[in-house]
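Can't paste images in this forum, so I'm doing it all in text. The chain is below; anyone willing to post the predicted structure tokens underneath?
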Amino acid sequence: MGHFCLTLVRGLGGGNDGAASMFQISAPVLRKLGDLTTNRGDEKTARKYMPRPRPYHPQEETWIKDVVRALIRRVGEHAAGAPLKKLTMADFPPVP
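Text version of the structure:
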């Protein structure tokens, strides 16, 4: 789900930089979400087969869920024309 939402946001924004600008989300947040959802997970949570699974740390799972909720909300706020305060890594719990 995390990777799907990131792909959708990037598509709407014309890439990572465009999405960061359009939706006022710092690029490091988008990059971290991409890294976690591409390179981590096990047979139940990875977006693709991983020969050597790297399960998520509980803090990473929480972070991904929080960011996905924020992305979904942010797309709706943008569509409604609401003023957007930039979301940064400081707006989310720390990840290891």
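The chain has a mean pLDDT of 90. The chain is about 60% helix and 0% strand.
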